[in-house]
TrEMBL record:
<dbReference type="InterPro" id="IPR006050">
    <property type="entry name" value="DNA_photolyase_N"/>
</dbReference>
<dbReference type="InterPro" id="IPR036155">
    <property type="entry name" value="Crypto/Photolyase_N_sf"/>
</dbReference>
<dbReference type="InterPro" id="IPR036134">
    <property type="entry name" value="Crypto/Photolyase_FAD-like_sf"/>
</dbReference>
<dbReference type="InterPro" id="IPR005101">
    <property type="entry name" value="Cryptochr/Photolyase_FAD-bd"/>
</dbReference>
<dbReference type="Pfam" id="PF00875">
    <property type="entry name" value="DNA_photolyase"/>
</dbReference>
<keyword id="KW-0285">Flavoprotein</keyword>
<comment type="similarity">
    <text>Belongs to the DNA photolyase family.</text>
</comment>
<dbReference type="InterPro" id="IPR002081">
    <property type="entry name" value="Cryptochrome/DNA_photolyase_1"/>
</dbReference>
<dbReference type="InterPro" id="IPR018394">
    <property type="entry name" value="DNA_photolyase_1_CS_C"/>
</dbReference>
<dbReference type="Pfam" id="PF03441">
    <property type="entry name" value="FAD_binding_7"/>
</dbReference>
<keyword id="KW-0157">Chromophore</keyword>
<keyword id="KW-0274">FAD</keyword>
<dbReference type="InterPro" id="IPR014729">
    <property type="entry name" value="Rossmann-like_a/b/a_fold"/>
</dbReference>
<protein>
    <submittedName>
        <fullName>DNA photolyase family protein</fullName>
    </submittedName>
</protein>
<feature type="domain" description="Photolyase/cryptochrome alpha/beta">
    <location>
        <begin position="2"/>
        <end position="131"/>
    </location>
</feature>
Length: 423
């Protein structure tokens, strides 16, 4: 029987899933596929919480599909080799996917596309994880935006013209009625994590603009992990927003801004967006870096943030800015070190946003915080956690500061200036 295949990646849901919806409307039965990509899994700890979340989400979707005598076909390995096997096993006439804009993903998808098309099978791509793809919001001359505010204004104007498309319905009866061997988490090489992903909550966004900078209030939506793995669509989220939720909407636009920066400037993965900062001589002291990672800098807000990250996989956004600025400017440690550590620990790790925010903090990125803007972690504590409620939740005992703020600030200004002159 000739069928079509849908490949789950960053879209782990059955509802309002663009490519899946198109696949289910073909009139042919749909084989749902998920591949645990060994190139992505390599190097992850066996109890990686994100892998557990993906696995548990697949299990939950599978329960739903069993109602229709269907099941997700879960495989592990190199995606190109896995698709070679699948194309040999099934009479697949087309593969449906939602677009992914990260450099590795685009290269992977191109390789799978070449394989499939060599067998006469098209790989059909659809926009899904964003409202506007990286090529839709550009300047009048066709070049990408590198400053957020004009990008945001163009985004909002285009959105007002087009509005969000209606949510897509899924005909689950169109799935291929076939069961597959279901691997255990252990078979994939992992064990269940003690760290769990919190459900997202959009019920209290009316207070978001006033409370979002106060970590003790815990007033964030916890949406980022779910957008990262696609357990909810961005369209579903925006449909729930009110006219007063513009600050929250602007955060969603930042997400797409950084995605299009990564798409148009993939070199930012390992390099400064602004090459004039290439001359900075980072100290890169390993002892200081280890203390920062453990939350032992002697600055309560910094240490609380790192301990929250290490224990839960989350860190409040305001605290992320303070923590990142402290590493780059107080300790003069290369932003790439901090970015890599966040990539290991953050449940919502997403290359585009992680890279963009770290370069913003270091001053090296597009539309970044100026290099001479150096957060005073003590002043930030007094302003955003004055009763130390957040700090006391995570820090039992605070050590002496590993560096004096005034001394560190002067040193950072000198090193940045020397780096700019050297370049």
């Amino acid at each position: 029987m000739e069928i079509v295949a849908f490949w789950f990646r960053r879209d782990l849901r059955l509802e309002d899933n663009t490519a899946l919806s198109h696949a289910l409307k073909t009139g042919k039965k749909v084989l749902p596929v998920f591949i645990f990509d060994d190139q992505i899994l390599e190097g992850l700890p066996p109890d990686d919480a994100r892998v557990t979340f993906i696995y548990d989400t697949l299990c939950a979707m599978n329960v739903e599909l069993r109602r229709f005598q269907s099941q997700i076909c879960v495989r592990m390995g190199n995606p190109v080799l896995v698709w070679q096997q699948l194309l040999d096993e099934f009479e697949i006439s087309a593969i449906y996917i939602n677009e992914d804009y990260e450099p590795y993903a685009t290269a992977r998808d191109q390789a799978v596309s070449q394989l499939a098309e060599s067998k006469g099978v098209p790989l059909l791509r659809f926009k899904d994880q964003v409202v506007f793809s990286p090529t839709e919001i550009v300047k009048a001359d066709g070049l990408p935006y590198t400053i957020y505010t004009p990008y945001k204004n163009k985004w909002l104007a285009k959105y007002e013209e087009t509005k969000t498309p209606e949510l897509l319905e899924i005909d689950q009866t169109a799935f291929l009625q076939k069961t597959h061997d279901w691997p255990s988490l252990k078979a994939i090489g992992f064990v269940s994590s003690q760290i769990s992903v919190r459900p997202y909550d959009l019920s209290s966004l009316s207070d978001y603009s006033t409370l979002r900078d106060l970590p003790a209030e815990d007033a964030t939506s916890y949406l980022s992990v779910h957008l990262r793995f696609g357990t909810v669509s961005v369209r579903q989220v925006i449909k729930q927003l009110q006219g007063s939720d513009q600050v929250f909407l602007s955060e969603l636009i930042w997400r797409e801004f950084f995605m299009q920066i990564l798409y148009h400037f993939p070199e930012v993965v390992g390099r400064n967006f602004k090459s004039k900062y290439d001359g900075i001589q980072w100290r890169n002291n390993h002892d200081d870096f280890d203390k920062w990672k453990r939350g032992e800098t002697g600055y309560p807000l910094v240490d609380a943030g790192m301990k929250q990250l290490n224990q839960t996989g989350y860190m409040h956004n305001r605290v992320r800015m303070v923590v990142a600025s402290f590493l780059c400017k107080h300790l003069l440690i290369d932003w790439r070190w901090g970015e890599a550590y966040f990539a290991e620990k953050l449940l919502d790790y997403e290359l585009a946003s992680n890279n963009g925010n770290w370069q913003w903090s270091a001053g090296t990125g597009c539309d970044a915080s100026p290099y001479f803007r150096i957060f005073n972690p003590t002043a930030q504590l007094k302003k955003f956690d004055p009763k130390m409620q957040y700090v006391k939740k995570w820090v039992m005992e605070c050590s002496s500061p590993i560096v004096d703020h005034a001394v560190a600030r002067d040193r950072a200004l000198r090193v940045y200036k020397e780096g700019l002159r050297a370049n």
